[in-house]
Design a protein that fits this description.
alpha/beta, Rossmann fold, Helicase, Ruva Protein, domain 3, 2 domains, two-stranded antiparallel ribbon, 14 helices, 7 strands
């Protein structure tokens, strides 16, 4: 296996798997428009299966993230170029979807905010910048680096800096021989192979990173109790669309009509979890709030305590079994 040297400096593999030529597309520029699209689509279709092979590694990363976020720790993504943009998108979606507090999941992009929409030359090679950003972490945090080649200096510096301060580390790459995998407690390696367009890792490798992060962050939020059944119970109504979604979630979970759910949400100061517990238990406002507070806002645990330890099924689960609603 090719490795970087101890300083994570200039020695690098000659060629990563994602940079090899794809024999299925050597005549790409001679194809019709439709055939170009068919080849791209055929290559893209291989990505979910490749991600599927990494699920045990993703599960290990989820368990690390749950442990970190269950305490006072925070999760930090580190990436450059397309990898950094994928990470920034995932981090940005977590707050509105799961009411995640600011600073709990942070995306670090080589070159900073300016590099998110403008390609800046050389920033991905700044190992020192990655290390400096990660050295602000602590032993209760988690650093996740994303690099298709598994050798980006900025990400290497970040993982080295995180490890130096005692933080847990995860690497997401498409290179089974990633030189910086030795810096990661968990290596999620999605072997997507050569791209349709040689070296354009925004394609299959980027798609793989998107699938990995979406699965990773969603599973983490589920394990943290930020959902009830398969419903988003931590949504914050910041606009009319989200308010309507909250009412619909209440109706789906309880089987109550929309007017009843809208009133329950209003009576609960638009706190979806509180309204849900009040309708499902059923319970008055204060006991419902006390139960949620005692169980860190986990709806199912709160219902379990209010019902004297009895299990509780969602409206849809009851319908599936043919039980009355």
């Amino acid at each position: 296996m090719n490795e970087v040297d101890d300083s994570l400096g200039s020695r690098q593999p000659i060629e990563a798997p994602t940079e090899r030529r794809n024999p299925a597309t050597t005549d790409l520029d001679l194809m019709s428009t439709l055939e170009v699209l068919r080849r791209i689509n055929a290559e893209d279709a291989c990505v979910p299966a490749a991600v599927g092979l990494t699920l045990p590694s993703i599960a290990r990363a989820v368990d690390l993230a749950v442990a970190v976020l269950s305490s006072a720790g925070s999760l930090h993504y580190f990436g450059a170029g397309s990898s950094g943009r994928v990470a920034a998108m995932d981090a940005a979606e977590l707050s509105p979807t799961f009411a995640l507090e600011p600073g709990r999941v942070v995306a670090h992009h080589a070159g900073g905010r300016e590099a998110l929409d403008t390609a800046l030359e050389g920033v991905e090679d700044d190992e020192a910048a990655g290390r400096a950003e990660a050295e602000a972490l602590g032993p209760g945090d988690l650093a996740m680096g994303l690099t298709a080649s598994g050798r980006t200096p900025y990400v290497a510096g970040a993982l080295a800096g995180a490890r130096a301060v005692g933080a847990a580390t995860v690497l997401v790459s498409s290179n089974p021989d990633a030189p910086i995998a030795r810096l990661a407690d968990v290596h999620i390696c999605v072997e997507t192979g050569p791209e349709v367009l040689t070296g354009s890792t925004r394609m299959k490798a980027g798609t793989a990173q998107k699938l990995v992060l979406t699965a990773f962050s969603t599973a983490t939020m589920v394990r943290l109790g930020r959902t009830y059944s398969n419903l988003m119970t931590s949504v914050v109504a910041k606009n009319a669309k989200l308010h309507g979604r909250m009412v619909a979630i209440l109706a789906q979970a309880t089987g109550q009509d929309l007017d009843t759910c809208a009133r329950a949400l209003a009576d609960s100061d638009r706190d979806l979890k509180l309204a849900l517990v009040r309708l499902l238990a059923p319970a008055d406002r204060q006991p419902a709030q006390d139960a949620l507070d005692a169980h860190d806002g986990v709806v199912r645990a709160a219902l379990h305590s209010l019902n004297g330890g009895a299990s509780h099924s969602t409206h849809s689960e009851a319908n599936t079994r043919g039980a009355p609603t």
